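Problem: given the chain below (200 residues), write out its structure.
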Amino acid sequence: MTAPITAYIDFASPYSYFLLEPLKAEADRHGRRLVLRPILLWAVLKEHGLTNPLETPLRRAYFMQDVVRSAAFFGKTFHPPEPLQFSAHLAARLYHAREARRPDDSFRLALAIYEAVYVNRQAITAPEVLAALPVLSGDDPEAVAADMQSQAGRDGLAAAVTEAAAAGVFGAPFVRIGDQNFFGADRLPQIAWHLQRQTG
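Solution.
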């Protein structure tokens, strides 16, 4: 059985947004299952005793230039959120709670969350913003809000953070295929190359 493509993503990570659709295309092309594992990167870094690289002025200045360039490279509409750094715990809980019940809808939900932040300039720290996502239009808003506070969502997120730390994740997006790790959206060509080699 071929190994799935596991992607540790953070809904507060624009690079995770840039990689999402191209990675899904690669997974489909090679007949691999794409497993999304939303995490809170700050929590994973804390597990490793690491600080957020954006707290370093030099790294932050580079990030602000590179993220705009990367968006153009991937052909993505991108508006920097305000504030730039935020905790996406509500979105991640929502994802994990719903993914447990409706795994077939999980990719569409993840993409919708990213587009809310980086395309539509919406604050996903607000529960009402998440509850109003078009992809959830057929759901009861109260049920969606309950998912954000549910034990299933909390446990799913906690498990993903623990799993990521144990797997050696130190950034987002972080992709694992078997025993191979790929960090960053710019590793997409190597991911495609690796999958092609395994396909033969």
